[in-house]
Amino acid sequence: MLQTILDSQHPIIQAPMAGVTSPKFVVACTEAGLLGSIGAGYLDGEQTKQFIQEVKKLTTKPFAVNLFVQEEPQIDIEVLQKARMALQPFYDELGLSPVQSVVSKEVFAGQVQAVIEEKVKICSFTFGIPSAEVLKQLKEHGVYTIGTATTLEEAQLVEQAGMDAVVLQGGEAGGHRGSFTAPLQLIPLYDLLQQVAGKIAIPIIAAGGLVTKKDIQKALESGAQAVQVGTALLVAEECEISPLYKNAVLASKEQETTITLAFTGKPARGIANDFTKRMKDATVAPYPLQNYLTTTIRKESAKQGNAEYLSMWMGENSHLVQHAGTVQSIVDKWL
Question: What is the per-residue pLDDT across 141-157, written as a single tens digit (0 to 9) for each?
Fold first, then answer.
């Protein structure tokens, strides 16, 4: 049973949510009986190590680390210049100097090393499949590996690579799409579960649009051995995002989210706002360069209380999130 392997009280994983998770939040999820997950996507090796150590100080329970499979972006100076120009009005409105220099640093090897050195037992991956060498290294150190897939083809590739389990990310999911094959597909979760169940032998973890007890039960009855939940936990007291962001989740209505590349250069689902609308047809630099170009815009917007230029990732069913309280009180409603 996957739950036994994950060593969690409930067959529920807290979605990693890079840039959102803090040690306090991960520990609260772990102590509430979920498998807590560190979203290490934006951290380097040393920061990943420090984060893991902070979590270990606060809990003895197991938790996972999620890494972004890194690819070196092709830097096209002309595209970069056009992307900067598209962002210029936002820099001006916020009183910021435009970001002049963007450098993509290799951090993946250091992150993997941090996972091994800190004896983390579960490591999940987004944006692709790590090399056979990395997977072999992790296996030699007893690390249980979980891939992310948005199609049957991707799920089969995750299994063929020798990974232990797969997160099936439905089109409803908030945050970055875990896609790594073209074209981008937004397959509803239950359709995806139907397509994949029985076609792969490794355990399936369902993700995307799961907010209520009924959603979780349905996913577990549809071929998933566990579920991964993110949006419903954003409003938890222990989640250290801005009040602007929490209020946006609680006030969201049906069909208010959109898929955008504008903030990071990779497609991600979040609340539609002025930034996503104005950037709809603009030139966007490839990930992670666009992420670097927009970092100061997002930070300054949060400081100024301007929700219109913030990346507020949330799933398509965010309008069903009504309960803000402790992580434990949110989890209790699922049981």
Answer: 999 999 999 999 999 99
Q: Which long-range contacts (CB under 8 A, 24 or more apart) does 250-258 make?
A: 250/321, 250/322, 250/324, 252/314, 252/318, 252/319, 252/321, 253/319, 254/319, 255/316, 256/318, 256/319, 257/174, 257/314, 257/315, 257/316, 257/318
CA distance to 73, 125, 134, 198, 262, per residue, from 115 (Å): 25, 12, 12, 31, 31
Is 3 a residue whose pLDDT tops 90?
A: no
100 burial class (0-12, 13-18, 19+ CB within 10 angstroms)?
exposed
> pLDDT exceeding 90 applies to what percent of the chain?
92
CA 149 – CA 323 distance, rounded (Å): 29
Residue 184, exposed/middle/buried by CB under 10 A (0-12, 13-18, 19+)?
Answer: middle
Distance separating alpha carbons of residues 91 and 326, to the nearest angstrom: 36
Sorted by sequence, the CB contacts under 8 Å of residue 321 that are 6+ apart come out as: 211, 231, 232, 234, 235, 249, 250, 252
How distant is the alpha carbon of residue 287 from its chain centre?
A: 15
Nearest Cα neighbor of 228 from 177, 169, 271, 185 is: 169
Residue ranges of the domains in the chain? 1-70+106-239+322-334, 74-104+253-313
Distances (CA, A) of 299 to 125, 138, 259, 291: 26, 35, 21, 12
For residue 317, the SS3 value is: coil
How high is the pLDDT of residue 273? Answer: 97
What is the reported pTM? Answer: 0.96
Give the model confidence (pLDDT) of 310-333 as tens digits.
999 999 999 999 888 999 999 999
Please give the helix or strand (H or E) that residue 112 lies within, else none: helix 108-117
Tokens of 242: 């801005």
In degrees rounded to 5, what are phi and psi of residue 229? -120, 135
CATH top-level class of 1-70+106-239+322-334: alpha beta
Pairing outcome for strands 257-260 and 268-271? antiparallel
